[in-house]
Design a protein that fits this description.
4 copies of one chain form a homotetramer.
Chain A lengths: L4 E10 L4 E4 L5 E14 L6 E12 L2 H10 L5 E14 L5 E9 L5 E4 L12 H4 L2 H4 L24
Parallel strand pairs in A: 4-6
Antiparallel strand pairs in A: 1-3, 1-5, 2-3, 3-4, 5-6, 5-7
The structure holds 2 DNA strands.
Chain lengths: ~160, ~160, ~160, ~160
Amino acid sequence: MAGSVNKVILVGNLGIDPEVRHTQSGSKIVSFTLATSDTWNDRQSGERRERTEWHRVVIFNERAGDVAERFLRKGRKVYIEGELRTRKWTDQGGQEHYTTEVVIDRFRGELVLIDSNRGEGGFGGGSSGGRSGGSSGNANRNAGWDAPGGDDLDNEIPF
Amino acid sequence: MAGSVNKVILVGNLGIDPEVRHTQSGSKIVSFTLATSDTWNDRQSGERRERTEWHRVVIFNERAGDVAERFLRKGRKVYIEGELRTRKWTDQGGQEHYTTEVVIDRFRGELVLIDSNRGEGGFGGGSSGGRSGGSSGNANRNAGWDAPGGDDLDNEIPF
Amino acid sequence: MAGSVNKVILVGNLGIDPEVRHTQSGSKIVSFTLATSDTWNDRQSGERRERTEWHRVVIFNERAGDVAERFLRKGRKVYIEGELRTRKWTDQGGQEHYTTEVVIDRFRGELVLIDSNRGEGGFGGGSSGGRSGGSSGNANRNAGWDAPGGDDLDNEIPF
Amino acid sequence: MAGSVNKVILVGNLGIDPEVRHTQSGSKIVSFTLATSDTWNDRQSGERRERTEWHRVVIFNERAGDVAERFLRKGRKVYIEGELRTRKWTDQGGQEHYTTEVVIDRFRGELVLIDSNRGEGGFGGGSSGGRSGGSSGNANRNAGWDAPGGDDLDNEIPF
DNA sequence: TTTT
DNA sequence: TTTT
């Protein structure tokens, strides 16, 4: 009710193959790391410098998760639109930590395959595979597509 | 097969009260103009300059349309996320024209009320009104919310 | 002074090779058309449907224009961030028309090459070509990079 | 060589007054926390639920920092466009931590005041204050606006 | 036609 | 710690 916007837009390359897990209620969760990099000329030295940023992407949306699982692999380029979410967790030593993730959930977010050369591994897709964006994001066009347990999905995740 | 993105993000003020119409199939369409403005200092004259840009926003999404109809009025500030769509039309003289609009449809887009002072006219809102973003956009959480006629909705619009 | 935002984000493919022209004051202007497409399943027929949207992109920023001129070609995929601008023009018959464009100017906007396989024509780029985004957009890091005539650049354009 | 995009768009309210500090080289750094919130109806219970997300915003851009320092206060609403950056730090106990921030630096990012009711404290602004977006972001229109030390600015920050 |  |  706040009148707020929380949006992240990334175009980058996967650092790992997508990892798939399921909640107790059966919902699929797909996650991976995504690299973006920035290059610029240092003003003083004149040298070319580069910074790579790693983002953790987590997909709760079933359709987008399916697309990620089927078509994304380490090294692939993808457009991700999601929201920032920071969660708290405690390590074995009892230390508290915070991790910020880019989340595509069932309400919002999008995943678009940017590479044209998908399918290198023979997992197909072909011309039918098509654009993931349309079928991911917020679509929810098939009734009841997400599992019971719904809204507290996040609490079930054992990262 | 596209791997494309078509996204517009606007924060601006309505130039008119939202206009509501319905397709033959009963779907609601809400539209209005939105002003954004830019100011800068002219390099040569040093004068302050301003340019106002007018955008035509068209909402096919029922929920976002409801929010717009209920809470938006001329002068209000709103965040709009939609996609660019250009349509062709012919004037009475037979001349062809093209008009580009920012569209929120049932698949994509969002509308967030930015003004806190909504409700000036007493049309309420209250705690129920709430934030439109969550309920608009792509939600479609209530089954079958859009009327038959569906995908060729656009062709029915008599602008 | 309005507190407004006017932003367009596109990922699409060029429909033509970039066209380069110069204002009387010597500034370079690069423009091209960009296609984005959307596919979805029609609810009634169940058929796969597709809509292609064409956008006109105009670059006033010298750096982004340089990158476009050197690396972009018909068919290439690019990420464009710009603002919407609608201009009025009159055809030979005296008819008035409006055209909406996505503009990258010296203040705002960005262009990022998305294709990895740039350089097909042997115009190089190599590993040095690098990311265009950093050097385009709003950088203006080299003093006085844009030509005299500055702020009324737009008025000089003979589209 | 990346062809990547790293962009965050937030509209939210400040949780604190902006904090201002300076690097050894004299550059100003302004930071604050920003809240965005999301509300939705729980599917199971039907109850209204809300999640508030807190973001840490850090501004290295001098102009945007000036605007933030002058016009932003706890509770104000602002549009922020920046990039995600995660930095590592070690607490007193020797424990390593990571913090993700939304950064506006001299190359990229934007800050737009959304509240119309700025100036509550009488710190003015008037017609001069105006919109920050134009003067922040990437402008760098006044030569040499940022202090020596430039590119490794980030390393000097003692958060 | 909006807003500051 | 914000806001509605």
